[in-house]
Amino acid sequence: MANAKQSAKRRLTMAERAQQLMLVHFPDLPEAWKWTRKTHDGFSTIPRTLPIAMQIIDAQSKGQPAGHVLFCLWARMPDHPVITIENPSTFAAEAGFLGERAVDTWRRRMKTLRELNFILTKPGASGEFHYVMLTNPNAAVEWMRNSGKVQDGMYSRFIERLPEIGAYGDIETLHSYWAALKEAENKAAVAAAEAAKQASKATAPTLPPPTQPKRTRRTKANA
Fold first, then answer.
1. Looking at the whole model, is its pTM more than 0.85?
2. For the chain, which end, N or C, has fewer CB atoms within 10 Å of the first or last residue's CB respectively?
3. Which residues of 156-166 are buried (b: 16+ CB within 10 A; e: fewer)?
4. In what order do the strands lie in the sheet with 82-84?
5. pLDDT of the residue at 2
């Protein structure tokens, strides 16, 4: 698996190759029709696995597909995972929902994304989804897989794509986090059990020593 430096070098090589192919196949394309991140404003950095993640989301949320809603959030991301949504109707319209119930439809899709761990939310002035944090979609897909929510075919395409883009480390990091979390939970359980045991000993009632019955002294009158 390529490290970060090697991946950066590979991406640069791919960009140079694409430039050469453009000169061969599209040499006369006017500048007005070209778009590159380095020369144009209005871009957002998105994970390369996002198209597969969107398909996985739509397969899980049949009847109410939420994949495109996630894409619209990433398109609005200011190169930082936290988004402030002051006007939900704008986001609903960009996701393709129109009419009187557009915002309600959008909110249902947002709840799906939250349930699947693709976003975290906090309420604010505009309602339940005023503050939204976009999580790592690779981690969210892996969580879905471990929860039995991803079909083998889609997961296979996802897991094959990760090494191609140098992102398999995301999965390893997530599993390391889960292992550490489980270990901490086990230690906490052992500590709680030991504390309960010690508390039980401290509060156990102390029984008085057994007393011998008094013997009646025999007198001459009773003899």
1. no
2. C
3. eebbebbeeeb
4. 82-84, 127-134, 119-124
5. 55
Give the pLDDT of residue 35: 87
The DSSP secondary structure of the chain, one letter per residue, reads: ---HHHHHHHHHHHHHHHHHHHHHH-TT--GGG---TTT-S------TTHHHHHHHHHHHTTTS--HHHHHHHHHH--SSSEEE-S-HHHHHHHTT--STTHHHHHHHHHHHHHHTTSEEEEEETTEEEEEEEE--HHHHHHHHHHTT-S-HHHHHHHHHHHHHTT-HHHHHHHHHHHHHHHHHHHHHHHHHHHHHHHHHHHHSPPPPPP-PPPPPPP-TTT-
Query: How far is residue 117's CA from residue 110's CA, in Å, rounded to a whole number?
Result: 11
Structural tokens at position 214: 């008094």
Cβ atoms within 10 A of the Cβ of 81, count?
15
The residues facing 119 across adjacent strands are 134
Amino acid at 145: R
